[in-house]
Design goal:
Length: 402
């Protein structure tokens, strides 16, 4: 039995996080909503299934309360970077609406539309963002990290929902929608509260994970190889750190070895405004991911180069990492470096047995994986069901006998 002893701290892959506390725009009240107009913004997701019934059903409820002035705007949010989202927010503000209803955050467009909703609130326009799982969880994460609070309204629908089901979902949430648009200041923060499950133990200000009180070594023998590794992996799993596979613990020494193979400054920014917190991803962060993925130090220049390529605007990274489409990030490498580091380009190069292939791909992808769990019920690859329908969502399987 091994007594507890001091362990070298690990570098926290979550990095340092800034706490935001968004001041929501004052709500106009019912009389202000009657004067209007209400902005209805469709990010083009309402053309899917019977989602086209969402806005008409809301307008029916509003009309019954004497709220009959509105403006309809439909514009895709796909492909818009932060500057494009801010430009869209400015154009919507110039419409002089009393409040805004935005839809729909059902998956890939959810983070960008959340950023747009936050931008409208910062510019003084009261807004409520309609979502549907699994996009609701995405919107929660982005709003939690970038604003602290936001008026989100989840609808219990999916693309296979009937018109009656969509209208019923709207009916059940109309009280919340009205509260989001008209609640007085003393109640608004409660309406906009986000109970997000991640980072209940936030990162330390020094960026390290102190293992001293977190590893119980009394059940390990003195000669046990990798004693404490299982406890570290359990800790990372509990905190939702990583891609789900076992990782190499990111010690300062291992990260320094990675950085020795990159000649530039470790603080160089590779990309920003992508993840939930909008924080910048630097070469240092990439080195931490490369260590965890099992890369050798000589693999690291390829990992950094791949990330720089993904950061190119035309790659549209923010959409690529949140879409429910089964696409991935493929890293192609050519030149003498291929043979020097042991990359395999022959048969089975995408299979098992080649460390460089597996870890470079994992290291590149791990850095852009959103570091929070989506309780996603989306089927990654569309499946043809026996009755001829295509399954895009787990609900589709519940309606058929397989």
């Amino acid at each position: 039995m091994m007594p507890n002893r001091h362990f070298e701290p690990l570098i926290d892959p979550r990095g340092k996080q800034k706490k935001y506390d968004l001041k929501l725009a004052p709500r106009p009240g019912i009389e202000g909503l009657k004067q209007g107009p209400i902005l209805f913004y469709n990010n083009t997701k309402l053309s899917g299934g019977r989602y086209d019934r969402i806005f008409p059903q809301i307008k029916t409820h509003l009309s019954a309360q004497g709220i009959r002035r509105w403006i309809d705007v439909t514009e895709t949010i796909r492909g818009k970077r932060t500057d494009g989202l801010m430009d869209l927010a400015e154009r919507l503000i110039r419409l002089n609406a009393a409040a805004a209803i935005l839809a729909l955050g059902d998956m890939g467009v959810s983070p960008a539309t959340t950023v747009l909703t936050i931008a409208l609130e910062k510019r003084g326009l009261p807004a409520v963002y309609l979502t549907a799982s699994p996009g609701h969880e995405l919107a929660q994460a982005v709003a939690f990290y970038r604003a602290g609070r936001l008026c989100l309204c989840p609808l219990d629908i999916y693309q296979g929902s009937t018109a009656i089901e969509v209208e019923g979902a709207v009916d059940r949430q109309m009280e919340r929608i009205m509260a989001c648009l008209s609640a007085p200041a003393d109640r608004l923060n409660k309406v906009a509260r986000i109970d997000f499950p991640m980072d209940r133990i936030p990162p330390e200000s020094n960026g390290l994970i102190d293992l001293s009180d977190r590893l119980d070594m009394r059940d390990h023998g003195p000669g046990e190889i990798a004693a404490g590794l299982d406890e570290i992996l359990d800790l990372f799993e509990k905190w939702r750190i990583g891609d789900g596979l076992p990782v190499v613990p990111p010690t300062a020494g291992r990260v320094d070895c990675m950085l020795n193979f990159w000649p530039a400054d470790s603080d160089d920014v590779l990309f920003s405004d992508i993840g939930p917190s909008s924080g910048a991803v630097t070469v240092f962060h990439a080195a931490v991911s490369a260590v965890m993925a099992g890369c050798r130090p000589e693999h690291f220049p390829i990992v950094v180069t791949a990330l720089r390529a993904m950061a190119e605007p035309n790659y549209n990274l923010i959409q690529a990492i949140t879409t429910s489409h089964p696409g991935g990030n493929l890293v192609l490498v050519s030149g003498p470096l291929v043979h020097q580091i042991g990359l395999h380009g022959g048969p089975g190069c995408l299979g098992s047995g080649f460390r460089a292939n597996a870890t470079i791909g994992r290291g590149s992808h791990s850095q852009v994986i959103l570091p929070w769990a989506l309780h996603s019920e989306t089927v990654v690859l569309p499946v043809r069901l026996p009755d001829g329908r295509t399954a895009h969502h787990i609900h589709d399987f519940r309606q058929t006998s397989l």
